[in-house]
Amino acid sequence: MWTLVGLGSTGGVYELDSNSNTVLKLPWQIDGDEAWNAKLLKHFEIEHKVYRLLGENEHILPYFGPEILEKRQGLVLAKADRSLQEVLDKTWNATSDFHKRWCVEAAKAVAYIHERGVYHCDLRPDNFLVLNNVLQLGDFGGAVCLELGLDAKKLPDDGFFNLKPEVTAHTDIFALGSILYSILTGHWPFCGTGEHVLRTDVAHDEEYGKIVKDNFGSGKYPEVATLEAGGIILGCWTGQYDSAQDIVVALERAFNESAG
């Protein structure tokens, strides 16, 4: 008996039993709305093809192939312990030993997919998963891959979006800056210190969206001077980096220097 254990904008996540190490991600279907159903199926087809292109990598959530349930083709994925967003909402603390490593792992994930010709286009804490305390990237239904002719025509959410409609490496790099900021502060850009706000409260909140657009649009960014990787985060937001791999190198150097 499959049990619904997670909700997303394009589908639900189901597990067969609590002891299973995999889950099945299935697209939502609305009776009588063929156009909507076809749109969601397209996202799942893109995700399947991108996962196949990416293959196995320690920074990507493991994918085990398609499976059909109730006449819907879903995706069998590794069962994560939690999402980064759940960490921000429930368990984040300033003294965690994982923050620096997770920053590097997030950057390595983005560097890897760019190396393979994929732009994620929807980087946010919900789409980074924690498995055995390792941060891995998932949810490629909004991705772009020119080699495969894939374009989900998706752009990141407020707080992770550079306000430019074209999709390039900088789309993901800007969002990565906000991911790093969230890991190190415990909250999204332009949220208050110590605020643990559920994504459904923030991403769909018009006031938050207006604050973010007004600030990012006028070149105003959250204060990062006190953060160990603050200069790197600001560089992601301001277009200093053209390569996610350069961010990996910069983070490792910064964290090694602070440890020494």
UniProtKB/TrEMBL annotation:
Keywords linked to the UniProt accession: ATP-binding, Kinase, Nucleotide-binding, Transferase
Cellular component terms per the entry's GO annotation: cytoplasm; nucleus
One record GO biological process: mitotic DNA damage checkpoint signaling
Any one Gene Ontology molecular-function term assigned to this protein's record: ATP binding
Positions that bind ATP: K25
PROSITE patterns for the chain: PROTEIN_KINASE_ATP, PROTEIN_KINASE_DOM, PROTEIN_KINASE_TYR
The organism's place on the tree of life at top rank: Eukaryota
Enzyme class: transferase
Pfam families the UniProt entry points to: Pkinase
Domain Protein kinase: 1-260
Known EC number: 2.7.11.1
Keyword Isomerase: no
InterPro entries xref list: Kinase-like_dom_sf, Prot_kinase_dom, Protein_kinase_ATP_BS, Tyr_kinase_AS
Gene3D superfamilies: Transferase(Phosphotransferase) domain 1 (1.10.510.10)
Catalytic reaction equation(s): L-seryl-[protein] + ATP = O-phospho-L-seryl-[protein] + ADP + H(+); L-threonyl-[protein] + ATP = O-phospho-L-threonyl-[protein] + ADP + H(+)
Coiled coil: none
Binding partners and assembly: Component of the EKC/KEOPS complex composed of at least BUD32, CGI121, GON7, KAE1 and PCC1; the whole complex dimerizes.
Role this protein plays: Component of the EKC/KEOPS complex that is required for the formation of a threonylcarbamoyl group on adenosine at position 37 (t(6)A37) in tRNAs that read codons beginning with adenine. The complex is probably involved in the transfer of the threonylcarbamoyl moiety of threonylcarbamoyl-AMP (TC-AMP) to the N6 group of A37. BUD32 has ATPase activity in the context of the EKC/KEOPS complex and likely plays a supporting role to the catalytic subunit KAE1. The EKC/KEOPS complex also promotes both telomere uncapping and telomere elongation.
Name assigned to this protein: EKC/KEOPS complex subunit BUD32
